[in-house]
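Sample 3 of the quickstart, ligand glycyl-adenosine-5'-phosphate:
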Amino acid sequence: MSGKGKEEKSLFEKIWTLANHRGFVFPSAEIYGGIAGIYDLGPLGAKMKNNLIQAWREFFVLRETNPPVYELDGSTILPYEALKASGHLDSFTDPTVSCLKCKKWMRADHLIEDSLDMYVEGMTLEQLNRIIRENNLGCPDCGGGLSEVTFFNLMLEVQVGPADGQTAFLRPETAQDIFLDFKRVQQSMRAKLPFGIAQIGKSYRNEISPRQGLIRVREFTQMEIEMFIHPNEIGNHPSFDKVKDIKIRILTREQQKKGETEPLETTAKESVVSKILPNPYMAYYLAKETIFYQSLGIPYDKFHFRHMMPEETPFYSGGNFDLEVELSIGRKEIIGNAYRTNYDLSNHMKKSGKDLSISVDGEKVIPEVVEPSFGVERAIYCILEHCYREDDGRGWSWFQFPPKIAPITALILPLVRREPLMEIAFKTYETLKENGLEVDYDDRGSVGKRYARADEIGIPFCVTVDYKTAEASTVTIRDRDSREQAVINKNDLIEILSKLVSGIINFEKLL
Ligand code: GAP
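Result:
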């Protein structure tokens, strides 16, 4: 309890309030009451999202040579037939129940899990109904009785064209465009197996009970890769040597059956040799994701890959190893890694009647697929929570974002509100902007207050223009993390900031 007798806020509430106040995320269409589970990213959230996407593209797409990864920017509206063939129309459902009194809709599995602390994943409607009846569960809000549990399809339907137009759906995953365009991409790029197709874009799910801020929303951004592999070559990844020694943490099915929660540590190579992972393509992505997530500020021991139990594995998958991050609200899945086999291409071939196989040495081949599927909004929440700091005696809370992800790289400030310092500082700010650096300018309040404001939104560096800048062309850079300061030549600023952001140098190098 605080001095005022108010309940101490949970970490999630603190982060969520800060994220709202400091311009990371707002409810969408707020002045009209908005729609539950739909959010807009504010100025800082939008910048962080762009930085995250850029870092992901570089690491998982642009720098990949063997296999190469091509990009796609497909439609978010897909025809009924495509989603019938993919299985989403019949199987992309959650069990739902409604209150007969207040009419609130809820996920039946969440209701049971929250009220009885019972694991019910994969249970039939009959089993769920029985548990609700036997335990006399009612509406958590008003205590009213509950309807029968039914399956609710999570896709959002749209009517394309005027009355009696074509029924379509907003895509529930970006992956489907990739399967539908697979043959086109292969032919236009003259691609040979193995190769990947990546897509970044919005997906939509009509979640029954959106919750926990950005963790379960109805409109979100995915970054997905479908890696297409010759079925006889799934055991050979041409660049596996690059990742073979990377350590990864996996929670196996056997461990979960025994109730263990501490993942085992292995290497990418060992995980394949010991058959913990089904193939080196899966191990390749788990290793890269381990490197990538640490570079976003999520500590190594705060995430692992969980082999999903058969009853939780998505209908299209021959095995999932999802990346889960430890958060104050529990362990949350942030990346779905699925071994999709040839499930999607085969189904689209059957239902469309079109040949999506490719010819390899005169033989028709339907490739197997390994898919890493990243959620952007969930990653942003994880970064906010894991980079949040309040305990080092500064007197204000702050975010320790890695420079490449930080929405703003540097704050440019005149030491005092006097000329020529203000003019030099503003010109410096303009020059840095013209050179593509994410910088901001602030001349209001004391320097200490401006440092505090910069820390609060996770700006890694402050650049102060003082009287020496006018005389000797030097500026002072302050490092957010160590609070150390270094004096450098103003003409080196662009190069130094660029190197600090890309990690080529760290701040100690300047001292
Ligand atoms: N193509 C495979 C696929 O979509 P998924 O596990 O359903 O797999 C992948 O989703 C990722 O998309 C999740 O790990 C999560 O990061 C993100 N995601 C899924 N549903 C979400 C939701 N309702 N709100 C926010 N992110 C979501």
